Amino acid sequence: MADYDFDVLVIGAGPGGYVAAIRAAQLGLKTACAESRATLGGTCLNVGCIPSKAMLHASELYEEAASGKLAKLGIKATVELDLDTMHGQRKEAVKGLTGGIEYLFKKNKIEWLKGLASFTSADTVEVSGKSYRAKNIIIATGSSVTPLPGVAVDNAGGVVVDSTGALEIAKVPGHMVVIGGGVIGLELGSVWKRLGAKVTVVEYLDQILPGMDGEVRKESNKIFKKQGLELKLSTKVTGVSVEGAKATLTVEPAAGGAAETIEADAVLVSIGRKPNTDGLGLDKAGISVNARGQIEIDHDFGTSVPGIWAIGDVVPGPMLAHKAEDEGIAVAENIAGLTGIVNHDVIPSVVYTMPEIAGVGLTEEQAKEKGAIKVGKFPMLANSRAKTNHEPEGFVKVIADAETDKVLGVWMIASVAGTMIAQAAQAMEFGATSEDIAYTCHAHPTHAEATKEAAMAVRGKPIHI
Ligand code: FAD
Ligand code: NAI
């Protein structure tokens, strides 16, 4: 250790980096974490998962009250939107959680190196003019918004915004156009729809939510349409011009054809995210990136250079906070000489709309390509708790290997699918068969019983349909 300032130096304090730093420190390693933001927690805590969920939660409650859903339950109220207070509670949530990470850094004696980190060699990093040598360096620099050529994002201007700007819009737009029908577009589009905006989603592909199970994508499409989101599929945006507080988008069919214009008060650009490696000095460390700009790693999260590791959004795989966190724990354990493993076949994904949309493992399409399967489905309409709570939309689908009955994937649309999917992930992690789930006693009345009944449907008939 003599020549080294740290055993572990982590670059980036998002869910990947801060978790890696805490685990490394817990394992007795002298640890530092470089972060250029004013607060810890990365994209997720500052401008991603947490503030978006704060707005999703509040806007959902507003919509329930304003639309008369609560009145139908016997709760009558005069409803008024106080957007400033709604933004205030979002900021409070972020402040509390980012401050919590700072507390955990202090508790675990992790040194926060404030500023942008850049490699000067394979074991040395410069932060704010100071050089630090570390035995192990973990790159956890995350990702940022993919720009759309010809479309200038101006979050301060509040008209053409990315996800960060869309969280902070000060006045409900009359018409919001969302470019990209992925997770961000649907979550943040839902927020502003619920608060009163007309929302149009322009999606390049012929279906929303790429990467999810086909049936789930189709059903989600129906549900969002019913909620009043206008979905313009197979359409590309070719330009956006802004004049004062108004934007004009030019769109045309993805396959080519006549162009048309759409007027909007706000435009959200949400066409994906790209890994952050600019200015990191990767060349000085001897590391290159792949065609998608990601840092390639081996099974243990090691890069092509010994002693340099990488995790989270900057490496291949889904760009999800829980994936980054699990990789953070595993890489720290590997550095400490333990065996840190992440099962990348079992990473759940959730879209936090209402209802929520979730899945883990293979889609039905992927599973069919691999061999014979059996599929069991159960509608939420037939689940007693969902029905009682007036949440009839959605279903649970369990996909199992036709021969071994091993669960290959579980997909669902349900009000609490984000919570329900954890059971499916755990079952798959334990190598469960559909029979295992079908014969596990589930508490009644819970939404989770729909998962049990979908598993029963794989093998024959569920009880309640
Ligand atoms: P990040 O969280 O991006 O953190 C990287 C950190 O590194 C940043 O703070 C950055 O400032 C810092 N950094 C970068 N370069 C340097 C450098 N050279 N020197 C010093 N510091 C540097 N995922 C979910 O699982 N669930 C959700 O509900 C969810 N919601 C989201 C909502 C939105 C609007 C967005 C944008 C994303 C959401 N995500 C969600 C994705 C999630 O935020 C990311 O997958 C996750 O943050 C990735 O973690 P990370 O540690 O790899 O990187
Ligand atoms: P995304 O990849 O989910 O969706 C982008 C969408 O934009 C795709 O449907 C794509 O076909 C479309 N698109 C691309 N170019 C286009 C164009 N020119 N015109 C019209 N449509 C176009 O990306 P998104 O929504 O920006 O999210 C980025 C990442 O953040 C995701 O990978 C996701 O993992 C993560 N995230 C996760 C959340 C969660 O877990 N709940 C919430 C928000 C973000």
From TrEMBL:
Residues 347-455 form the Pyridine nucleotide-disulphide oxidoreductase dimerisation domain. PROSITE patterns: PYRIDINE_REDOX_1. Its cofactor is FAD. It comes from the Bacteria. Its EC number is 1.8.1.4. Keywords: Disulfide bond, FAD, Flavoprotein, NAD, Oxidoreductase, Redox-active center. GO terms for molecular function: dihydrolipoyl dehydrogenase (NADH) activity. NCBIfam families: lipoamide_DH (TIGR01350). This is Dihydrolipoyl dehydrogenase. It comes from Sphingomonas naphthae. The gene is lpdA.
